[in-house]
Specification:
Elements: H1 14-33, E1 75-76, E2 83-89, H2 94-112, E3 117-123, H3 132-144, H4 154-166, H5 168-184, E4 192-197, E5 200-203, H6 211-223
Parallel strand pairs: 2-3
Antiparallel strand pairs: 1-3, 2-4, 4-5
Length: about 220
């Protein structure tokens, strides 16, 4: 019996995360202009990057609830797939979004959905991006709750933020586990991609891989 598909791929939550950050930023600016003391916010201060264009969620994304900080919440596909792909990502990373748009969406459709690839998101927030760690916290909370929609209601966003507050220690620990893993693997840019097949893990060129090259590589591994 195949294990259920576990809903998560980091980049699919970019719209949700950046919408939350934009909301926090706008509320802070409004409070400031009204000479009211801004409410404490978990997001770091600074100017947010422009919100990325909305991207539709893959049909493969079937969200389920998971325990707080569960690695399974940040994976998509079948654990019994012959190939595992791990992608270390930062939610304010333009190259991560480009990799998703040009390559990863097709990998999900053509390899994850048919059970050929198990896809895992790893958080690797970069210090140069002021909102990336807070975005990762919100995304982890949303993943634990199975909220993979590209847009969410105000009530759903409140639920996500409340969940984040209630499970902040577990969420921070999950992010740090990913970061520590990345540091041990000498990750120094995002996206950084690792492919495991037949018990061997290979690092792909950093910054993303063209889909045609990735497809050829995956097909080669599947023929072994």
């Amino acid at each position: 019996m195949k294990p259920p598909q576990i809903g998560w791929i980091g980049i699919l939550l970019s719209v949700l995360v950046f919408a939350a950050i934009t909301c926090v930023s706008a509320r802070t600016q409004t409070n400031t202009s009204a000479n009211a003391a801004p409410k404490p916010a978990a997001a770091a201060t600074g100017s947010a990057k422009s919100t990325p264009a909305k991207t539709p969620a893959s049909p493969a994304a079937k969200p389920v609830s998971a325990a707080a900080g569960s690695p399974d919440a940040k994976a998509l596909g079948s654990k019994s797939a012959p190939i595992t792909i791990e992608v270390f990502e930062d939610f304010q990373c333009p190259a991560c979004r480009n990799f998703y748009e040009t390559s990863l969406k097709q990998v999900i459709d053509n390899y994850v959905t048919p059970g050929k690839v198990y896809l895992i998101h790893r958080d690797f927030p970069l210090e140069m991006h002021p909102y990336s760690r807070q975005a990762a916290r919100l995304a982890n909370a949303a993943a634990d709750l199975g909220q993979l929609a590209s847009t969410v209601s105000a009530a759903q966003m409140k639920k996500i933020r409340d969940y984040q507050s209630a499970h902040i220690n577990d969420i921070n620990a999950a992010i740090e586990r990913d970061r520590t893993m990345g540091v041990k693997r000498n990750v120094n840019q995002t996206p950084s991609i690792y492919v495991t097949s037949h018990g061997k893990t290979e690092a792909l060129p950093g910054g993303g891989v063209n889909y045609d090259l990735l497809r050829n590589y995956l097909d080669y591994l599947l023929r072994q």
